[in-house]
Design brief:
The protein folds into 3 domains: about 5-135, Fumarase/aspartase (N-terminal domain) (Fumarase C, Chain B, domain 1), CATH 1.10.275; about 150-215 and about 265-385, Fumarase C, Chain A, domain 2, CATH 1.20.200; about 395-455, Ribonucleotide Reductase Protein R1, domain 1 (Orthogonal Bundle), CATH 1.10.40. A two-stranded antiparallel sheet has the order 1-2. The protein has helices spanning about 35-40, 45, 50-70, 80-90, 95-105, 110-120, 140-175, 195-215, 230-235, 240-250, 265-295, 320-340, 355-360, 360-380, 385-395, 400-410, 415-425, 430-440, 445-455; strands spanning about 180-185, 190-195, 220, 255, 300, 380-385. Helix 3 (about 50-70) crosses helix 7, helix 5 packs across helix 6 and helix 7 runs antiparallel to helix 8 (about 195-215). By secondary structure, the chain is mainly α. A hairpin with a 2-residue loop joins strand 1 (about 180-185) and strand 2. The relative contact order is 0.10.
């Protein structure tokens, strides 16, 4: 067995985005490699050029060993397996040599093959040097290496980041389950709700999408230049290459795609991109709602004395975490949408547009990851102002109109909706005006119904369980 990809790396930095303002940030074109470098550094294990080359090396060596295990080439001796393990661990220490080869031949995937050939030349494996990359096309190696990295990136960083955000929302659901709030539809006062219910809605939506995402499979393809094992079958016509490919792809943790051209069909991968985009859209909606609630004074943000909110207005405490998250979620979603739209389109049996497009998946993932962390940071600073929330409800007793007409209907009152509409539509009612409205209704309703109406109160209508 070859070592896992993560064995080549040592630990991961803090998963919460942190500004990096060191010297290296000043010359970076992308903020991901500049001021947010530290915040997205855990993703470099999966989406960097270094990671891709390490994964290519692993796939090439795993395939080489699989040929031996299937009897297509001689059996490897224990010390030869040890040698291959050592080669698998040789990156990133040998990155410079790999890049030298690539510069000479102008082909990044072929450079990995030549690197392996170079490493085993002069060893007991030299007699098998021609079986390195045997029958493979670069698309075989790249899609399997990339797919393995993407799977690990999802499982080890992206899923946990979404889980952490969802868990924070669930915690705030419990914390504020009895905290009343004025619900608004179309921006207008509507009915009472609770702060906890609003957090629960977002937590539930995010978790639902994450559960769908976890069930999706990363596709993988092994089939040669046109997906039909043409060269393989000519060399070893008695060997069952299709079954071999299926088993090999599964051994990498990927879902085999057996009917392909030179590249795998990308529809399954695009479904994953769309699922990530939906999660981002939900978080974007959360950011906007919290921004609105903050502007109404429903929440306050924890203050760090050394921080500055505005360059000219000393009093400002701005919701920058939610604004940063919103901005970069838009960037991430533009990339996810573009990838899902464009990747399934390739000319004839293959062109290289897919390879170049896949290079920006790391950016889409990083902007998503960065945004989730920013929202999480904002949530940690957030505190509900119960006094403001309750006073807003007490300024709008007309929001009991729905409950009134429902109770009247229950007691057989004819045209309950129309009657309450005449008394409340377009009006803002304080408690005094509300009591006067009830007095107008009293002669028209039964004592039992009226007793129920008298018990209604904006702070007591709904307790979310």
């Amino acid at each position: 067995m070859l070592p896992t990809l993560t064995a080549c790396y040592h630990g991961a930095e803090n998963s919460i985005p942190i500004l990096y303002l060191g010297e290296r940030s000043m010359g970076a074109i992308s903020p991901l490699d500049g001021r947010y470098r530290r915040g997205v550094s855990p993703l470099r294990r999966f989406f960097s050029e270094e990671a891709l080359n390490a994964a290519r090396l692993e796939v090439e060596l795993a395939y080489f060993i699989a040929l031996s295990n299937q009897g297509l080439i001689r059996t490897f001796r224990p010390e030869e397996i040890t040698l291959l393990r050592r080669i698998a661990k040789s990156l990133p220490a040998q990155n410079d040599r790999l890049k030298e080869i690539e510069r000479a031949i102008n082909h990044d995937t072929k450079a990995v093959e030549y690197f392996i050939r170079e490493q085993i030349t002069g060893t007991t494996l030299e007699d098998l040097v021609e079986f390195v990359h045997f029958g493979l096309t670069s698309a075989d190696v790249d899609n399997l290496a990339w797919g393995r990295l993407f799977k690990l990136g999802l499982e080890e960083e992206l899923f946990p980041a979404v889980e952490e955000l969802s868990a924070r929302l669930a915690k705030m659901t419990e914390e504020y389950k009895d905290c009343p709030m004025l619900g608004r539809t179309h921006g207008q006062p509507a009915v009472p709700t609770t702060v906890g219910q609003q957090f629960l809605v977002f937590a539930s939506r995010i978790r639902s999408e994450l559960n769908k995402l976890r069930r999706m499979e990363i596709p993988g393809k092994l089939g040669g230049a046109l997906g039909n094992f043409q060269a393989h079958r000519l060399a070893f016509p008695e060997f069952f290459w299709l079954g071999f490919a299926e088993d090999f792809v599964k051994s990498l943790g990927l879902e085999p795609k057996l009917v392909t051209t030179q590249i795998p069909p990308y529809e399954d991968l695009c479904e994953i991109f769309d699922a990530l985009r939906r999660i981002n859209t939900i978080v974007l909606g959360l950011n906007r709602d919290l921004w609105d609630y903050l502007s109404r004074g429903y929440f306050t943000l924890a203050i760090k004395n050394q921080e500055v909110g505005s360059s000219t207005m000393p009093q400002k405490v701005n919701p920058i975490d939610f604004e940063r998250s919103e901005a970069y979620l838009k960037v991430a979603n533009a990339l996810w949408e573009m990838l899902a739209r464009e990747l399934p389109q390739n000319r004839l049996q293959r062109d290289l547009t897919d390879k170049y497009l896949l290079r920006v998946v790391g950016e889409a993932a990083a902007y998503s990851y960065l945004s989730w962390g920013a929202t999480l940071n904002g949530l940690r600073k957030l505190h509900a102002d119960r006094e403001v929330l309750e006073q807003d409800l007490l300024n709008h007793w007309e929001i009991l109109a729905e409950a009134i007409q429902i109770i009247l209907r229950k007691h057989g009152f004819v045209e309950a909706f129309e009657t309450v509409k005449k008394l409340t539509r377009g009006r803002v009612l304080g408690e005094k005006e509300y009591r006067q409205m009830l007095a107008e209704l009293q002669p028209q309703v039964s004592p039992t119904a009226f007793a129920e109406l008298e018990k209604l109160h904006p702070l007591e209508v709904l307790k979310w369980e």
